[in-house]
Amino acid sequence: MNAKTHISIKNLTVTFGRQKVLKDVSVDLPDHRVTAIIGPSGCGKTTLLKTLNRLLDKVDGVKVEGQVLVDGENIYDPKIEVTRIRKKMGLLSQKPQVLPMSIFDNIAYGPRIHGVREKAKLRQIVERQLAAAGLWDEVKTRLHEPASRLSVGQQQRLCLARGLAVEPEIILGDEPPSALDPQSSRTVEQRLIDLKTDYTVIVVTHILRQARRIADYIVFMYLGELVEHGPAAEVFAEPKDPRMKAYLTGEIS
Amino acid sequence: MVKRLFKELAARRLMFLVTILPGALVFLMLFGLYSRSRSILALHSFSDLLFGSSWFPLKGEFGLYPFLMGTVWVTLAAMAIAVPVSLLSAIYLSEYAPRRIRETIKPIVDLLSGIPSVVFGVWGVLMIVPFVAKIAPAFGAYSTGYSVLAGAIVLAIMVFPTIIHVSLEVFASVPQSLRDASLSLGATKWETVKHVVLRKGLAGIIASVALGFSRAFGETMAVLMVVGNTPIIPKSVFDSAYPLPALLANNYGEMMSIPLYDGALMLAAFVLLLIVLVFNIGARVVLIRAEQKAE
Fold it and tell me: Is residue B262 a part of any domain in this protein?
């Protein structure tokens, strides 16, 4: 496991009001691998994920200190254009958030705001992404219906397709498969594993078994601290920190 | 035991009664106004009265059209000012403003809605009327200042708090994670507002505008103080106008010695109520459609 680093987090501290939610986190996340951020609820794993595409720092009362380097570029540099950083990262949220528009427009939304105007080109992107998400055959006859009419599982796949349509480098998943039935969860998990050939995948999960199924690299958080990180095989076989051991045996959850 | 059951029954009946009363009142009013205007409807046809443009009560001519147009002009001009301004400030407060600014401005805006309309009227006479008289020549018009525009400005300010308040609630009901979904695709805040927040909240925004419209349409005091009250059909916003509510407020109980005057005013009130009802029902239909579309 000698992948090069894609995202390098350096001394990241996040404060909500007076509460420190992330305490001096430093870790390098490998390129073209599935990284799972695990830990009990309230440990800061979702906060860590959201700092990666700068969804948090503009929120009232939130202070972010430290650096996050993506391809060597500090995304918290004040001179940086936030939209460009976010375009690099597709976000898959816990519950699928379809935009209030048609199935077609949900996919075409991203490419459109980034300047794709030609109808034929948009159609091509939509078809390709829906096909890759395994949704094309189900929706090709009703592309112009509101996306909210799709089932939750279909919406989840639509959201992934929408994220990929802006050609990101990194996929961020905030417990993505948790709102699905077991069958669809497995499909999404397989999709995440497949995606690492083209993207760096970072997933937050509170399901340990899921982390075991999909992760190449593990980041274990506890009460805002980064406790242990390393290749999944090593961390699961020989956890070093007692808190990590306790978490793996189910004593803390 | 029996007493308890009796109380239960009595309470239920009483509550039922007070619940249906307001609804029934609307119909009673419609009926009352209609029956009181029968005296004039016996002599002139409804459409002649509604679309007749000469108002000479002493000659027995009661054309309501100038008042109808006066109401329409003032209301539409007011909405043309109020809707963009209040929506933009609601968007700013909800999406862009730091919490401190939002928490300071919101109560001030709400305070506006508690100011009695006569105060707006006086303020309009002192500030807005001279202002309109001053700017009219720049648009190649002459105006005393008592005009559609003065009425519209005063009304717009009275409508702001309604639209801002309701739109803020609407924007607050749009989940943050939906905004995040759009932002994470690299959309700017403005793109997110335009394509996601406004779209998701469309039904609520229509409702807020409809509420503001209803308020503007029926508002009487502040408007009648600044619009000039001459029964002509306005041709520009610098002309004076005479909206229906002002007609009723100025004349009811004063000119009752003139034959049929009473009937004409009752008809005016009937028409006003009818328009407001139709508008509200229409707005509700649009609202339901928009809700279905947004889902």
Answer: no
